[in-house]
Write a structure and sequence with these properties.
seven-stranded mixed β-sheet, Small_mtfrase_dom, Helicase, Ruva Protein, domain 3, peptide chain release factor N(5)-glutamine methyltransferase activity, 41% helix, N5-glutamine_MTase, alpha/beta, 19% strand, Rossmann fold, 13 helices, S-adenosyl-L-methionine, single chain, 298 residues
């Protein structure tokens, strides 16, 4: 979109930039640049600028954009066409029925990670009223907060090595009223009090292998925090540490549940077995990939 075109349209010269015309142009432009969801991207960004839902834009497609709206939208569109994730441009992302604030300090929460929450809840029903939960590599806090909100009488501790990520997590917890969720900066278990034992430990660790890092889409590889992505040569460097150390922090009968990358479940399950876990389960996501491995401390 040329700046002079937008200015002329806003001033009444030439064809006006209506919602319909802008969405059509934007979606086509983003498609040419490799967006996997160009129309949706355009609708979400334009909706943010106009303060309108996608339904409202469908109802009023001929509404013209004002000059200030054109300028604001153009800036967002340019950032998206350069590869910046839509969630960062919007500043929010939905996860497990709640809206989380996100930016470059944290990974963008993904629907597949909701399976980790579901497994954690399902495997701790018998202690649901008084459970202690530790969420490692908490990032935006979406898993820790989801567990805490679903089980208000539990006590949840979210842990992360990144102080910047924890700032985001604390803001999300405060905004969502997760009063039973706290956060700690630590390298996995390093600063967790040794006398504390947990009924559930969840983790969404970095699990992208060195080789797969090279093939990630630019909007992930170049914008999301690398320390939350890089899992070493086979993607399991951090997973190995968690699985090896977790038993000493779990109650007998406590559960460790961990998100893994596509194809990593068999090797991860073998690590669980070698660490002495029983009742090992591999749970698939909506795409059919084995996404979460979990086991019980015997």
């Amino acid at each position: 979109m040329k700046e002079e075109q937008g200015s002329k349209a806003a001033e009444g010269g030439g064809e006006a930039w209506t919602i319909r015309r802008m969405l059509t142009w934007s979606a086509d432009d983003l498609k040419k640049r490799g967006s996997a969801s160009p129309r949706l991207d355009a609708e979400l960004l334009l909706g943010k600028v106009l303060g309108m839902s996608r339904v409202q834009m469908v109802i009023d497609p001929e509404r013209p954009l004002q000059k200030s709206e054109l300028s604001t939208y153009k800036a967002l569109h340019q950032r998206r066409r350069a590869g910046e994730p839509v969630a960062y441009l919007l500043g929010v992302r939905e996860f497990y029925g709640r809206t989380y604030r996100v930016d470059h300090r944290v990974l963008v929460p993904r629907p597949d990670t909701e399976i980790l929450v579901e497994v954690g809840l399902a495997r701790t029903r018998d202690v649901s009223l008084c459970a202690r939960v530790l969420d490692l590599c908490t990032g935006s806090g979406c898993v820790a907060i989801s567990l805490g909100k679903e089980r208000p009488t539990t006590r949840v501790l979210g842990a992360d090595l990144s102080g910047e990520a924890l700032t985001v997590a604390r803001e999300n917890a405060l905004r969502l009223g997760a009063v039973n969720v706290g956060f700690m900066r630590t390298d996995l278990f390093a600063r967790v009090p040794r006398k504390v034992r947990f009924d559930l430990i969840t983790a969404n660790p970095p699990y992208i292998s060195d080789e797969d890092m090279l093939g990630l889409p630019p909007d992930i590889r170049e914008y999301e925090p690398r320390m939350a992505l890089e899992g070493g040569p086979d993607g399991l460097d951090v997973a190995r540490r968690i699985i090896a150390e977790a038993p000493r922090w779990l109650e007998v009968g406590g559960v460790l549940a961990m998100e893994v990358g596509a194809g990593q479940a068999p090797d991860t399950a073998a690590l669980f077995e070698r660490a002495g876990f029983g009742e090992i389960q591999r749970t698939r996501d909506l795409g059919g990939h084995e996404r979460v491995v979990s086991g019980v401390r015997t």
